[in-house]
Amino acid sequence: MSWSDRKSLSAVARLAARVALISAMAGLTAGCFEPLYGRSPMPDSDSVRDKLAQIDIPVIPTRQGSPAARVAVSMRNALQYDFNGGAGPNAPTHRLTMTITPTSLTVIVDVASGRPTAEVDGVTVNYQLVEIATGKIVVRDTAFSHVDSDAPGSQQRFAQQRAKRDAEDRAVTAVAEAIRNRLASYFVAGT
């Protein structure tokens, strides 16, 4: 066997040893990971999904008939769907109280008609998570989202209203996701 053959065999042996070491390390750490919203493999512990399902979301206080009322109902529905698929909490351990403020800003105005052609709509939500047993506020935070909308032409008022509503709905979805992620972070890390 020549010197170059022995050198290539030792290189193959080193590579095989590295692959074996990496496989062993991956095998040892594979049991440490579980999905954030998955079910817990241990029967005595609750998963994040179970803890989110135990949050009671009361009606968000707004003036009835106002544009904020539609956004508030949409926000509550989005959070209930995110937390437990739309069903109410089984045995609530926490209560999520919120105040909601929709915003609208006209960015571009058509000079001839005076109607806006582009707007930025948004939703700001101040929320707090209260532990029902103690009445202690465990999380207090603010979430917001701003999205833009375009009105196709100055004569199409319905299209402009629909674009505004769609923008508000997109903002509600983004804020609901941010609140869900923040509360999941609290249940996992306690912060």
Descriptive overview:
Helix 3 (67-84) crosses helix 4. A hairpin with a 5-residue loop joins strand 3 (116-131) and strand 4. The protein is built from four helices and four strands; from the N terminus they run ααβαβββα. The mean pLDDT is 80. The protein has a four-stranded mixed beta sheet. It has two domains: 3-32; 48-189, 2-Layer Sandwich (Double Stranded RNA Binding Domain), CATH 3.30.160.150. The protein starts with a helix and ends with a helix. The protein is α+β, with helices and mostly antiparallel strands and 191 residues long.
Write the H/E string, N to C.
HHEHEEEH
Mean pLDDT across every amino acid position = 80
For this entry, what is the oligomeric state of its chains? single chain
Strands in their spatial order, largest beta sheet: 1-2-3-4
Q: How many helices does DSSP assign?
A: 4
